[in-house]
C-alpha cells in the first residue's frame, strides 16, 4: 500500500474513519445491513450488562463477561469494558461483532487524532466522536444489530469524572452520576441508583458496581455472574487523573467472596 | 521558435541537491542516541509547540529537520500509513523499515520529478524489545536511506556534530553503560559545541523507552531535561 499523501485542499485531517474511506477500506454499510436483515434469525453473539458510576476520584466502569446467542452462552470471557485511551473507557452492549469493531475503531481514532494533531481530544470531543460512530451504525441497528455503548472518562480540564449514555440513533446524554446499559441494565441500574452516594470513596464505588452486576446476573439469564470455577470475573476499571486502571482478578475474587457471604446471611 | 537551453542532468541534480542542502542548513540540528532503555531524541528547538520530534506508532518515532511544513506533511503521512497498516493487519506488523522505504520512495520521487526538492532530512527510529533490535533510519532529501547503528545526526551542522560525537566514542561504549542522562548530555554537548551552551528551554527531548508500556514514545518536560543535564 502506498503512503497516503494528500494535497492540502483534499486532506482528510485527523479523522481516521474518513482516511479509511479515502483508502477504500471503509466499513461496508450495505454488507452490514444485509447481515442485519437476517439478524432476527441470525443468532449473532450479544454482549450484555455494563454499568458506570462517578466517585470521589473519577469513575468506575464494570461489565460482566458473558456473550449470548439466543438462549446459548456463546462466550464466557468477553471483555465489554475496554480502555479507549489513557483517560477514558467504553462499555458496550448489543451485537458483539459490530460493537467490538466499533470500539477498536474508536480507540484507534482517539490515538490517531492525538498523533496527527499533537494533542488529545477533550473528553467531550471523544464522547461526540463515539456518538457519530453509533449513528453510523444505524442502518445495521435498524436490522437488529444494535450497539449501545456507555462512555466514561476523567476530564482533565474540569478535574472530574464524567459519563455518557447513548441510544441507537447516536443520541448522546451526559449522566450526572451513574448509567447502565444492556439486558441486565434494569437490575444493575437500580442497585446502583439505590446505593449511590455523592463523592463515594473508591472502595465503596467498586463494591457497588460489583454488587450491581451480581444482582443483574441473579435476575437476567444473559448476564454472567462471577465464575469462581473458571476464575472469570467481571471487568472492573477505575479512571482517575492518573489514568485507566483495571482491577486484578484477585481483588475481584475477594470482593465477590464478601458479597456472596452477605447474600448467604440475608 | 525558442529552443530550451540544454542543461546536463548532472548539473540539474547538483543544483537541486545544493538547494535542498542550503534549506536544511538554515534550520537547527537534532541528534538521536541509543541508550540502555531505548532511544533518546534531542533537537535544538526553541519552540515549545512546533515539534520536530513526534510519535508515529507504538515503537516508532519520527524526527525531521529543515522546512517545517514539509517534514510535518511527511510526519502526518507516516502516522496515517502506520495506523492504516495496524488496522488492516495487526499492530505487530507496523515496522520502521517499511516506513523508511516508503519515505525514501516519496522523497526520491519528489527530488527527481518535482520543481523543487523537499528541504528536509528525516529520521525514523524504532525501539526493539531488546537493545539489539533498535533501528535508526536516516533519510535524506533525495531519498537516500542510511541505517545507522549507535546514533544519528540530522541537520545543517551535521558534520561538526558528528565529529564531536565521534570524539565521545559512543560506538565503543557498551549500550548498557549509557543511561538516559548520559545520552541526553552527550547529544546536547554535541549539538552546542564548545563555544556556546544550550539550556533545557532550547531543547526538545523525547524518548522511545522500552519501559513505557505499549506506546513507547514520551516527551520529557523542561524540568526533567534540566535535571538530566545537571546529571
Question: Could you give a short description of this structure?
Answer:
Chain A has helices at residues 16-22, 29-37, 96-117, 123-136, 138-142, 185-195, 202-219, 249-264, and strands spanning 46-47, 50-55, 58-63, 67-69, 72-75, 81-85, 88-95, 147-155, 160-166, 172-175, 178-181, 235-240, 243-246. Chain A is an alpha+beta fold and 266 residues long. Chain A has one domain (44-264): Glutamine Phosphoribosylpyrophosphate, subunit 1, domain 1.
Helix and strand topology:
The complex is a heterodimer of chains A (266) and B (231).
Chain A: H1 16-22, H2 29-37, E1 46-47, E2 50-55, E3 58-63, E4 67-69, E5 72-75, E6 81-85, E7 88-95, H3 96-117, H4 123-136, H5 138-142, E8 147-155, E9 160-166, E10 172-175, E11 178-181, H6 185-195, H7 202-219, E12 235-240, E13 243-246, H8 249-264
Antiparallel strand pairs in A: 1-4, 1-7, 2-3, 2-11, 3-12, 4-5, 6-7, 7-8, 8-9, 9-10, 12-13
Helix pairs in contact in A: 6-7, 7-8
Chain B: H1 9-26, E1 30-35, E2 38-44, E3 53-57, E4 60-66, H2 68-88, H3 96-113, E5 120-126, E6 135-139, E7 145-148, E8 151-154, H4 158-168, H5 180-192, E9 203-209, E10 217-220, H6 222-230
Protein traits:
heterodimer; A: 266 residues; alpha+beta; 8-stranded antiparallel beta sheet; 5-stranded antiparallel beta sheet; B: 231 residues; Glutamine Phosphoribosylpyrophosphate, subunit 1, domain 1; 39% helix
Structural class of chain A: alpha+beta
Tally of contiguous helical segments of chain B: 6
**Tally of extended strands of chain A?**
13
CATH class type of chain B: Alpha Beta
Percent helix range of chain A: 25-40%
Rg of chain B, nearest Å: 18 Å
Q: Given the C-alpha coordinates, what overall shape of chain B results? A: globular
Q: What's the N-to-C terminus distance of chain B?
A: 71 Å
- Overall pLDDT level of chain B: 92
Distance between the termini of chain A: 63 Å
**How many domains, in number, for the residues of chain A?**
1
- Indicate the overall shape of chain A: globular
CATH superfamily annotation of chain A? Aminohydrolase, N-terminal nucleophile (Ntn) domain
Q: Architecture of chain A in CATH? A: 4-Layer Sandwich
Amino acid at each position: 500500500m502506498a503512503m497516503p499523501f494528500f494535497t492540502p485542499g483534499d486532506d482528510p485531517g485527523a479523522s481516521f474513519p474518513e482516511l479509511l474511506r479515502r483508502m477504500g477500506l471503509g466499513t461496508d454499510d450495505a454488507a452490514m445491513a444485509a447481515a442485519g436483515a437476517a439478524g432476527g434469525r441470525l443468532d449473532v453473539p450479544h454482549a450484555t450488562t455494563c454499568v458506570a458510576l462517578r466517585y470521589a476520584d473519577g469513575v468506575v466502569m464494570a461489565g460482566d463477561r458473558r456473550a449470548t446467542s439466543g438462549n446459548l452462552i456463546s462466550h464466557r470471557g468477553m471483555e465489554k469494558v475496554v480502555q479507549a485511551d489513557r483517560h477514558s473507557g467504553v462499555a458496550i452492549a448489543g451485537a458483539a461483532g459490530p460493537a467490538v469493531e466499533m470500539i477498536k475503531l474508536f480507540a484507534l481514532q482517539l490515538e490517531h487524532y492525538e498523533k496527527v494533531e499533537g494533542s488529545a481530544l477533550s473528553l467531550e470531543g471523544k464522547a461526540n466522536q463515539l456518538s457519530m460512530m453509533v449513528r453510523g451504525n444505524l442502518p445495521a441497528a435498524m436490522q437488529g444489530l444494535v450497539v449501545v455503548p456507555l462512555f466514561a472518562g476523567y476530564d482533565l480540564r474540569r478535574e472530574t469524572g464524567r459519563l455518557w449514555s447513548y441510544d441507537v440513533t447516536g443520541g448522546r446524554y451526559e449522566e450526572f452520576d451513574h448509567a447502565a446499559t444492556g439486558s441486565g441494565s434494569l437490575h444493575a441500574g437500580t442497585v446502583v441508583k439505590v446505593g449511590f452516594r455523592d463523592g463515594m470513596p473508591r472502595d465503596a464505588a467498586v463494591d457497588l458496581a460489583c454488587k450491581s452486576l451480581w444482582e443483574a446476573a441473579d435476575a437476567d439469564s444473559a448476564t454472567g455472574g462471577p465464575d469462581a470455577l473458571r476464575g472469570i470475573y467481571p471487568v472492573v476499571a477505575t479512571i482517575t487523573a492518573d489514568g485507566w486502571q483495571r482491577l486484578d482478578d484477585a481483588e475481584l475474587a475477594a470482593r465477590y467472596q464478601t458479597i456472596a457471604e452477605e447474600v448467604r446471611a440475608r | 521558435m525558442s529552443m530550451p537551453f540544454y542543461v546536463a542532468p548532472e548539473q540539474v541534480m547538483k543544483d537541486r541537491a545544493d538547494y535542498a542542502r542550503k534549506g536544511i542548513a538554515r534550520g537547527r540540528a537534532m541528534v538521536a542516541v541509543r541508550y540502555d532503555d531505548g532511544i533518546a531524541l534531542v533537537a535544538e528547538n526553541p519552540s515549545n509547540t512546533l515539534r520536530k520530534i513526534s510519535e508515529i506508532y507504538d515503537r516508532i518515532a519520527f524526527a525531521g529537520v529543515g522546512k517545517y511544513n514539509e517534514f510535518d506533511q511527511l510526519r502526518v503521512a507516516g502516522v496515517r500509513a502506520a495506523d492504516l497498516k495496524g488496522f488492516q493487519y495487526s499492530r505487530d506488523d507496523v515496522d520502521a523499515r517499511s516506513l523508511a522505504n516508503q519515505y525514501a520512495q516519496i522523497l526520491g520521487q519528489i527530488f527527481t520529478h518535482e520543481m523543487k526538492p523537499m528541504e528536509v532530512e528525516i529520521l525514523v527510529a524504532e525501539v526493539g524489545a531488546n537493545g539489539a533490535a533498535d533501528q535508526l533510519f536516516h533519510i535524506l532529501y533525495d531519498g537516500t536511506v542510511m541505517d545507522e547503528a549507535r546514533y544519528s545526526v540530522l541537520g545543517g551542522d551535521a558534520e561538526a556534530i558528528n565529529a564531536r560525537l565521534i570524539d565521545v566514542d559512543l560506538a565503543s561504549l557498551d549500550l548498557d553503560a549509557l543511561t538516559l542522562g548520559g545520552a541526553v548530555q552527550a547529544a546536547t554537548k554535541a549539538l552546542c559545541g564548545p563555544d556556546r551552551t544550550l539550556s533545557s528551554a532550547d531543547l526538545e527531548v523525547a524518548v522511545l523507552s522500552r519501559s513505557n508500556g505499549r506506546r513507547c514514545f514520551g516527551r520529557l518536560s523542561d524540568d526533567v531535561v534540566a535535571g538530566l543535564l545537571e546529571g
